[in-house]
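> example.struct
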């Protein structure tokens, strides 16, 4: 069965050329309670959250993304963009910086946790402030592109650490910056000899797909290899506009990977997860991570349990092509880094014999060769490269 992707429900009062213009979408963002009331009938829970102002976290959505949310308070997209009273309640583990990013912050806007790759937070602005955001300590605070002196310090950190092989542009949302700024950032990174891969982590294909213009993809192609990391959480986000944006990247040689987060009452159902990921693969997007929601402040009502996530993964395993299966992962708080959650398929082990049970209950033994029979190939050609990678953080 082929999939169809419906067009977004543009209001009649807006012209096609405005609706399909990304700067119009950003200029016309909904930010205040009265902006939201023009589109939604607010519930008491939602109104209370607006009355607390932006105390905890900014509020913003593009008209496009708002148009995908229904007027039902339980609608999945509505729950992603709409503040709720629960954000201001005490949480189980409320952390403003759940990933301990501030202690892995050797230069302004640079987060260096793994030896070979860094995050580079070029802006703190997003076009939608997702209520589950992990980086509330940073996102939407200054409302600006990186200052020039900080930009130079960040670049010089990357330049002076030859072990850094990959730079992940993040934020905020790096595709909220202009083409000219993006071209400059990518060009500066490309001029550093040891930077092999550049990734761009963005929600713009989801919340403002009109950002993906021919000019934008030409810039990404010019600075190849650039990987685009999208962040679709629900199949309802896959409109005709979003599908066209994803295909534009791939057609122009920009591989796209998707990272999703499991959210309570929003997408934590195997039918929804498979629907999203099979459609993404059909659009040539590789599902990459499926995250457990981080214990960011004000997100308890959006977090699922680890048991629930494992159950979803277990149901999908075996029924969903490996191409469509994302890796379930939890980011260990306080800068522990990511860890995969995997079902335990091994049920017994005796000496060299391990016993496994497959996804549909088939049991069998796998006899492993003995340690004394294991030999290593000559790796001398690649050893220096490997050692430099491991030493990269020092
Ligand atoms: C997630 C993350 C990365 C990228 O990890 P991958 O597993 O390579 O996708 C890099 N740095 C930090 C600090 C991260 O949180
Ligand atoms: S787009 Fe990303 S950084 Fe911005 S609010 Fe959403 S989750 Fe946070």
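> example.seq
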């Amino acid at each position: 069965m082929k999939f169809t992707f419906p067009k977004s429900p543009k209001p009649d009062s807006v012209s096609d050329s405005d609706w399909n213009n990304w700067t119009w979408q950003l200029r016309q963002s909904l930010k205040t309670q009265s902006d939201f009331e023009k589109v939604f009938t607010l519930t008491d829970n939602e109104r209370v959250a607006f009355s607390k102002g932006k105390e905890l976290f900014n509020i913003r959505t593009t008209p496009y993304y708002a148009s995908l949310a229904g007027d039902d308070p339980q609608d999945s997209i509505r729950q992603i963009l709409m503040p709720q009273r629960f954000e201001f309640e005490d949480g189980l583990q409320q952390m403003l910086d759940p990933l301990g990013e501030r202690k892995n912050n050797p230069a302004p806007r640079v987060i260096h946790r793994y030896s070979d790759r860094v995050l580079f937070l070029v802006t703190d602005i997003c076009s939608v402030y997702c209520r589950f955001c992990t980086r509330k300590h940073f996102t939407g605070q200054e409302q600006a592109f990186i200052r020039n002196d900080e930009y130079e310090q960040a670049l010089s950190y990357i330049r002076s650490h030859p072990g850094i092989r990959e730079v992940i542009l993040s934020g905020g949302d790096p595709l909220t910056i202009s083409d000219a700024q993006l071209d400059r950032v990518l060009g500066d990174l490309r001029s550093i000899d040891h930077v092999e891969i550049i990734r761009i982590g963005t929600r713009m294909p989801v919340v403002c797909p009109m950002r993906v213009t021919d000019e934008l993809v030409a810039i990404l192609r010019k600075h190849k290899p650039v990987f685009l990391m999208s962040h679709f959480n629900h199949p309802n986000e896959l409109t005709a506009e979003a599908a066209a944006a994803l295909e534009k990247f791939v057609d122009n040689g920009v591989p796209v990977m998707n990272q999703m987060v499991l959210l309570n009452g929003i997408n934590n159902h195997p039918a929804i997860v498979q629907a999203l990921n099979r459609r993404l693969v059909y659009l040539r997007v590789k599902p990459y991570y499926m995250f457990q929601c981080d214990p960011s402040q004000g997100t308890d009502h959006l977090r699922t349990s680890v048991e629930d996530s494992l159950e979803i993964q277990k149901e999908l395993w075996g029924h969903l092509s490996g191409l469509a299966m994302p890796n379930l992962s939890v980011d260990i708080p306080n800068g522990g880094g990511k860890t995969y959650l995997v079902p335990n398929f091994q049920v017994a082990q005796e000496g060299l014999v391990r016993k496994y049970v497959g996804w549909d209950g088939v049991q069998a033994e796998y006899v492993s060769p003995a340690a004394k029979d294991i030999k290593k190939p000559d790796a001398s050609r690649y050893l220096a490269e490997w050692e430099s990678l491991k030493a990269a953080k020092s």
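> remarks
Residues 16-88 form one domain.
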